[in-house]
Amino acid sequence: MFDSQCGQVKHSAPISATSLTNDCMPRVAFLGLGAIGAPMARHLARDEFDFVVWNRTRARADAFVAETPARVALSPADAARDRDVVVCCVPVSRDVESLLDGPDGILATMPAGAVFVDCTSGDPATSRRMAARFAEHQIGYLDAPVSGGVVGAVQGTLTVMVGGDVNTVDRVRPILECFGQRIVHCGVVGTGDALKAVNNAMLAMHIWGLAEGLVALQKAGVAADIALEVINASSGRSNTSMNLFPPRVLTREFPRTFRLALLDKDVAIAADLAREQHVPSPLLQLTAELFRMAHNELGELADHVEATRVVERMGGAEIYPSTGASA
Ligand code: NDP
């Protein structure tokens, strides 16, 4: 990808920190240091990259660079200037789109030949629109949402589902591998977004379905730890029943790692996808409606697993283990 002279970006070979001299280290930017963006970016703050970060709220970027070798950029345009790769991870696609234009926008400075990697769990239509905008500037675009949660981001074991040109994927693979253990090329631009949305719709269904079942069992006299012991050794088990409910619902701790508002957005994207593809999808549409309702009720800061609280309220019972009722 790089010419022997620094400052020249070419579409020829993959980015490789090890194949470059110290003078020509890959220039990378990361935009959006939120719950998952910050731990992802931490893996790029390493000696072999010239690395800058930008965050809408400056204090978060300042805190990040205080702990890492990264530098703070003052605007998206400042972050994208002379970069080989710009990675972005913000809530929704329209937030990404809002960073493109104007004197402070990415397109004002990002060089031809570079690649924009959007790790936002976005929507396919907006990703296709943005890919076209970047293409007008000879910049590559990939939608590259991730799964594995904050723990996976901290450990660098995320799955990255990528939509876009396969050669572009190969060029930025060394960057993606800094935070991703499994890099999966899904198809054309937008397919990474589509797959991510469907995956998260499954997560939402598991949360809601398990919550309904456990509330009903609670009222029938079966404590939640007993119920989960059986379910997790049986065919009804899921990541939700094994890894989310025991440490989050049974303890009533509900740690905030992935906002309910973001899961609502993901399920809505999956429901739209099914409608656009003319797939009868009553379960997806209902799940989208339920998560919109839970989001409205619990607000912007609630964690996704807290949707359980809405099921409990409607069912008139709280889920608790046999060791003690919390209500
Ligand atoms: P957070 O809400 O924790 O952080 C959002 C980040 O985006 C913050 O840095 C915020 O800046 C910034 N931001 C918000 N709005 C804008 C805007 N309009 N313009 C510029 N920057 C903005 O979200 P997460 O980090 O949890 O999620 C980011 C993406 O990753 C989402 O698409 C989400 O669905 C996805 N994701 C999240 C996972 C998780 O476990 N958290 C797991 C997998 C995917 P500021 O500091 O100013 O608020």
How does this model look, in words?
This protein has two domains: 22-188, Rossmann fold (3-Layer(aba) Sandwich); 194-315, Orthogonal Bundle (N-(1-d-carboxylethyl)-l-norvaline Dehydrogenase, domain 2), CATH 1.10.1040.10. It is 46% helix and 12% strand. It has 13 helices and nine strands. The strands form two sheets. A six-stranded parallel sheet has the order 3-2-1-4-5-6, with helices on both faces. The longest helix is centred in the middle third of the chain and has 29 residues, at 191-219. 45% of the residues are buried. Bound molecules: NADPH dihydro-nicotinamide-adenine-dinucleotide phosphate (NDP). Residues 32-37, 55-57, 60, 89-91, 95, 98, 120-121, 146-147, 149-150, 257-259, 262 line the site of NADPH dihydro-nicotinamide-adenine-dinucleotide phosphate (NDP).
Task: Kindly list the characteristics that best describe this protein.
12% strand, alpha/beta, N-(1-d-carboxylethyl)-l-norvaline Dehydrogenase, domain 2, binds NADPH dihydro-nicotinamide-adenine-dinucleotide phosphate, three-stranded mixed beta sheet, 327 residues, Rossmann fold, disordered N terminus, six-stranded parallel beta sheet, 2 domains, single chain, 9 strands
